[in-house]
Every structure is written in C-alpha cells, then in structure tokens.
C-alpha cells in the first residue's frame, strides 16, 4: 500500500495544499491502494515540500512526479484523449499550477484579514507566546517570493483583471462538457479543480474567493469533481 504524505485537511478540503489534493485525486483514479499520513513539517522531505508518495522502493516527491510514477504502474489519467486534447490539458495544468497558485498564496499569506486564520491553522502547534514572531519570520520570505514572482506588485483590480481572462477561458471549456476534456475527469481537472477549490474555500471573503463563489459554472464544476472523485 502506498502512503501519501500530505498537509492536513482544512477549510473543508482534503488538504490545505491544492497539490496534495491533486495527488490524492491521482491516487483515487489510479486504482492503487493508499492511505494518508498528515504532517505540517516538510523540511525532511525530498525537495522540502509536500506531497510525497511513499512506496516500498522510494519516496516520490512532487505531484507531477507522483503522476509519472502512477502512470509507470499502469494508470491512465487521459483515457481516450487525442494528442491535441493532451496538449490543451497540459496548458491548462500549467495555467493552474504556475499562475493561479500564486493568486491563491497571495490571498492566504498576503491578505491581512486572512493571514491570522492561516497562522492559527498552519502553525497552531507553536506555543501562543511565540507563534506571532515565529510565523511573521516565516511569512516574510513568502511575501518576498510573491514580490519576486511579480503577482503582489499588481493592485487588487489589476490582479483580478489578469485572472478574469483565465476564468472566462475555463468557462468556455465547461460550457461544452461536464469536465474540462469531456464527460469524465482527466489530468487537467485534477490540477485545475483543487486550485479553484482552494480559492473558493479561502476562509474570508476576498475579491477572488467571491468571484469563484458567485460563478455558477465554476461552482457546479467543483461540486461535480467532488462527487466524481470522493476522497477520504
């Protein structure tokens, strides 16, 4: 049996990390037996991050590597897709993971209304007297990274304009079929849906979380994913 090392559940999701949710979806669709093991400290993990899949032979780090490993064991996450659809799928995955992810992190770590909730959720095991100074030191490099990436340099309205075009493109896909590539979830859904769900479940109202929650096409899509791939 495989063991998925993951951040704990939170905000109504399988995990606080959309990449851990993606890994859980991959495992659920792979047909392989697995269990979860929660941790909040990835420092001793390969690449110092989660998710990590523990197999009998090795530790597989990163959700993309987990996908490749499961495919090497016979899983097919794009059944019946043409080469063109697989190319479109890859573009959607990169849009979600290499662009939307930073919007999600900024909403959680850069929003002063949301940050106290994130601090208590992620770092509640730190003694109360030390929690604020320690977590402020953890937060600073995250915010510095968001500035280096560039997303935090935009105003809220500029940032929403940037992601709005992406969300409209996604709506176009979902008006054609229940899932991004057709009538069943495929690899693109396993990356896109966790990122959107993370935005929707931000524990305070932000322009981004409200945008997702008020979009019936997107919310219905997220509900279909959760029904199609139930997670423990």
Describe this structure in words.
The protein is α+β, with helices and mostly antiparallel strands. It contains nine helices and four strands; from the N terminus they run E-H-E-E-E-H-H-H-H-H-H-H-H. Helix 7 (187-200) crosses helix 9 (216-228). The longest helix has 28 residues, at 83-110. It is globular. The two termini are 15 Å apart.
What are its keywords?
single chain; 232 residues; alpha+beta; Glutaredoxin; Glutathione S-transferase Yfyf (Class Pi), Chain A, domain 2; 2 domains; four-stranded mixed β-sheet; 9 helices; 58% helix
CATH class of the largest domain: Mainly Alpha
Quote the beta fraction.
Answer: 5-15%
- Count of DSSP helices? 9
What is the fold-level CATH name, i.e. the topology of the largest domain? Glutathione S-transferase Yfyf (Class Pi), Chain A, domain 2
User: What is the alpha-carbon Rg in Å?
Assistant: 18 Å
Could you spell the SSE succession in H and E letters? EHEEEHHHHHHHH
Q: Low-confidence segments, ≥5 residues, pLDDT <50?
A: none
| Average of the residue pLDDT scores | 96
Write the CATH architecture name of the largest domain. Answer: Up-down Bundle
Determine the fraction of residues in helical runs and give it as a percent range. 55-70%
User: What structural class results from the helix and strand content?
Assistant: alpha+beta
Global geometry? globular
Number of strands: 4
Spatial strand arrangement across the major sheet: 2-1-3-4
- The span between the termini is 15 Å
């Amino acid at each position: 049996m495989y063991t998925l090392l993951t951040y704990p559940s939170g905000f109504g999701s399988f995990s606080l990390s959309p990449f851990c949710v993606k890994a859980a979806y991959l495992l659920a669709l792979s047909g392989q037996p697995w269990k979860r093991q929660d941790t909040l400290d990835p420092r001793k993990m390969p690449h110092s991050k989660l998710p990590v899949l523990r197999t009998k032979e090795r530790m597989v780090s990163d959700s993309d590597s987990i996908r490749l490993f499961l495919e090497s064991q016979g899983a097919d996450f794009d059944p019946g897709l043409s080469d063109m659809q697989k190319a479109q799928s890859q573009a959607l995955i990169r849009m979600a993971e290499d662009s939307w992810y930073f919007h999600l992190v900024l909403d959680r770590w850069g929003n002063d209304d949301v940050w106290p909730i994130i601090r208590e959720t992620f770092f509640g095991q730190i003694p109360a007297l030390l929690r604020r100074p320690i977590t402020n030191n953890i937060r600073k490099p995250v915010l510095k990274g968001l500035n280096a990436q560039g997303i935090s340099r935009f105003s809220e309205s500029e940032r929403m304009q940037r992601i709005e075009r992406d969300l409209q493109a996604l709506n176009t896909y979902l008006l054609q079929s229940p899932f991004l590539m057709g009538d069943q979830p495929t690899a693109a859904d396993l990356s896109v849906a966790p990122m959107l769900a993370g935005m929707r479940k931000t524990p305070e109202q932000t322009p981004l979380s409200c945008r997702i929650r008020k979009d019936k096409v997107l919310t219905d899509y997220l509900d279909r994913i959760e029904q199609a791939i139930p997670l423990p």
